[in-house]
Design a protein that fits this description.
about 325 residues; alpha/beta; Spore Coat Polysaccharide Biosynthesis Protein SpsA, Chain A; 9-stranded mixed beta sheet; 9 strands; about 15% strand
């Protein structure tokens, strides 16, 4: 049986930390150790953590969750690392189920379970990875994160081999790490709920703008690395998909009438290789349509809305359903 280190990066998670740690200690398959790295919390996180039989470490200065995660990774002694953010918690069978996938499929580098959303959000988030044998999931991971961070168990040597988390990124670094990881290693999953993802106002994912930009930056950085290595075919396919993703994101935001998000996405054009000028112009015109004109299209008589938008933009967009 492979040894498992539960690793917990922490910053100001005092109100939730006891439940987080206790969920690790209550696993039906005990972990070999619990490593908690406190990124200079200013609340009572340290006092809470020290009540439990875990390895407590503290960064010298607040440096972001990527630094805390890499510290966890370096300090862990287990063959597998089971990731858990300090405000989330596991079901008692999480380690047995998800780590068990890696024992059953030695060709897989990481495994994911499904999560239950708790707190300010409700629902279930299943991994995008299909159940069954391990799969090459790179292109899907190039587009979207394959699964929630607190539901992942990975081989420690594989995480170290890709260089861990990008410490320049204070947000979006989970997308970046799994994208790079899936370029080299297969992924496997269960859609059984094994962990709980807490949504609350203080978390990074409640402020998505920089996190969203970092997904574009991560793709560009990986593309540049592959290009420098001389893999022309892979580089060109990455570039094609980067353009497609950008257009998909723009269209989705436009269809949802998230005009400020359209304007924000247009600023990412410098991160998209050969971003098509017609696409840029198409959405730039729509990004500044006055609110009354949008209302005329969405709420008013269809013919009036079309005439107003054609006058403003020179061309009416595809109507929303």
């Amino acid at each position: 049986m492979l040894s498992v280190s539960a690793v917990i990066p922490c910053y100001n998670a005092g109100p939730f930390l006891a439940q987080t740690i206790e969920s690790v200690l209550a696993q039906s398959r005990p972990v070999s150790e619990v490593v908690l790295v406190d990124d200079c919390s200013t609340d009572d996180s340290a006092a809470v953590a020290r009540r439990y039989p875990i390895r407590y470490l503290r960064t010298p200065v607040n440096s972001g969750n990527a630094v805390a995660r890499n510290t966890c990774l370096r300090e862990a002694r287990g063959e597998l690392v089971a990731w858990l953010d300090a405000d989330d918690y596991w079901e008692p069978h999480h380690v047995a189920t998800v780590a068990g996938l890696l024992e059953g499929f030695p060709e897989a580098g990481a495994a994911f379970g499904a999560v239950r959303l708790v707190g300010a959000a409700r629902g279930v988030a299943t991994p995008r990875i299909p159940t069954g044998p391990p799969v090459n999931f790179f292109w899907e991971s190039f587009w979207r994160t394959p699964g929630p961070q607190m539901a992942a168990v990975a081989r420690r040597d594989a995480m170290l081999a890709i260089g861990g988390y990008d410490e320049r990124m204070r947000s979006g670094n989970d997308f970046d790490v799994w994208m790079r990881f899936s370029l080299r290693y297969k992924l496997v999953s269960t859609h059984e709920i094994t962990s709980n993802y807490r949504w609350h106002p203080g978390q990074l994912s409640s402020r998505p703008e920089q996190q969203y930009r970092n997904t574009y930056l991560a793709r560009r950085q990986l593309r540049d690395t592959v290009a420098a290595e001389g893999d022309r075919a892979l580089t060109e396919e990455m570039e094609r998909r980067m353009r497609w993703i950008w257009e998909q994101d723009l269209e989705l935001c436009w269809q949802n009438r998230e005009v400020s998000a359209v304007r924000y996405l247009l600023r990412f054009a410098d991160l998209v290789p050969e971003a098509p000028d017609p696409v840029r112009r198409h959405y730039a015109r729509r990004a500044w349509i006055p609110r009354f004109a949008l209302r005329a299209w969405d709420l008013g008589p269809r013919s009036l809305g079309r005439k107003v938008l054609e006058r403003v933009t020179g061309r009416a967009p595809t109507p929303t359903s």
